[in-house]
Amino acid sequence: MSRIQCPRCLRPQSHCLCPLIPSLDSRTRVLLLQHPSEVNHALNTARLAALGLNNAELIVGEVFENLPVLLNRPGYTARLLFPGEAAQPMKAYGSSDESMLLVVPDGTWRKARKMLHLNPLLAALPRVTLAEGGVSRYRLRKAPGPGALSTVEAIVQALETLEAPTSFAPLLKPFEVLIEGQIAAMGEEVYLRNHSEK
Question: Class for domain 23-195, per CATH?
Answer without folding.
Answer: alpha beta
